[in-house]
Amino acid sequence: MLSSSTSTITFIFRYSLLQIPNFVSFPSSSSLHSHSEPPSLRQVDEAVDSFTRMLSMRRTPPIIQFNQILGSLSKTKHFHAAVSLFQQLQARGIAPSIVTLNILINCCCGMGRMTLAFSVLAKIFRMDYHPDKVTLNTLVKGLCLCGSVEKAVCFHDRVLAHGFHFDQVTYGTLINWLCKTGHTSAAIQVLRKIPRHGIVPNVFMYNSIIDSLCKVTLVSEAFHLYSEMLARGISPDVITYNTLIYGLCVAGQLKEAIDLLSDMVLRNITPDVHTYSILMDGLCKEGKIKDAKNVLAVMTKHGVKPNVVTYNSLMDGYCLVNQVNKAKYVFNTMAESRAFPNVRSYNIMINGFCKSKMIDDALNLFEEMHRKNLVPDTITYSTLVDGLGKSERILCALELLEKMYDRGCRPDVRTYTIMINGLCKEGLLHEALAFLSKMEDNGCLPNAVTYEIIIRALFEKGENDNAEKLLREMISRGLLQG
């Protein structure tokens, strides 16, 4: 620990000036009210009234009673209200405790005001308090939530060098956010270093890194950490297994995924709906529908109710193997299990119908979405436009495309290309050229296929000048070697 509070404050100020915007004095309650919250719930009003009554008492209650109210406001994310009450506490000359100031730091972090949070830390030192693990954990988490993960690591290193100590919560937070921001190698380095600080790694830390590795298909590295967990006596939980099963499914190692499910059961860890749904999705993506149905049977046998994700995976699998009618049956019966179709459910079925040339069925589902107040997304519109275009129902596709624009959904290059192809097949070349221009105006650049379709159609109609103009444009964009 530093020899004096003054030198510690100097360190904190030096850190803040280098890493975070300059300190400012703590704001008045009026400046905070300029960013006030929506109208509070009744319990918040009651908390504020209680706080005000306590302030007006002849004998001021102990600070712990004020802390209880401030803490409850902080926990319910009414940060501005809590800070405003703290200002009243200050105005009455009531000295805050370290708990009060920790609550205040949490509020500042919750508002994204890290400069103010570090000002409160400086106040802690000025009052000859020592920051505890809650103080430091809150600051590290606040920096991470603000997207300043590297600053959080830097803050950790500097504070550690000055004799302060962190706990599992801090390291769990750092590792989790490093993984979330793609710094998996740095997270592993932190994991390797923490035993020397007297901290024992826990399952949450390992799960964060294993999840990050599996998402980028580094499954063998993930299993290396899994083995390390077991060797250290750290018991994997259902999240560990779900993550590893997902990684194996993405890597196409379905047999190993099924074996891991068995290992999970042997270790007395009960698979949940996510476990089964992940495995079913992996099997369905490989067209192994029978195996997926077996997993569904095992799932229901053990009393685990399928959810909408489970059914979506099964429907997607049926559509993949061109068994759209079986997918339709699942879609129509899933509500019986209290699993109601969502936008993805409709997208899967609309895509399946379009691929099977059942365009009217797809359009009927599109209309059903509106009746059920489900908002179609870009995938819904693009799938339908593609299906209508390929079925040579160009006018209907154009009408739908206008609706897509009106709702702020942006078509991709594939959707535009299919529309241009449909227009060319109908002999509507000038409309196709106008579409090409509109495509670029909307920030979607045509690819080689787009150009080839329209250039071929122009040559076939004898519009050689327009065709050659597009050829030159295609070459200039590096889509064709001159």
UniProtKB/TrEMBL annotation:
Keywords: Repeat. Belongs to the PPR family. P subfamily. This is Pentatricopeptide repeat-containing protein. PANTHER family: OS03G0856100 PROTEIN (PTHR47447), TETRATRICOPEPTIDE-LIKE HELICAL DOMAIN SUPERFAMILY (PTHR47447:SF22). PPR repeats lie at residues 62-96, 97-131, 132-166, 167-201, 202-236, 237-271, 272-306, 307-341, 342-376, 377-411, 412-446, 447-481. It comes from the Eukaryota. SUPFAM superfamilies: TPR-like (SSF48452). The keyword tRNA processing does not apply. Transmembrane segments: none annotated.
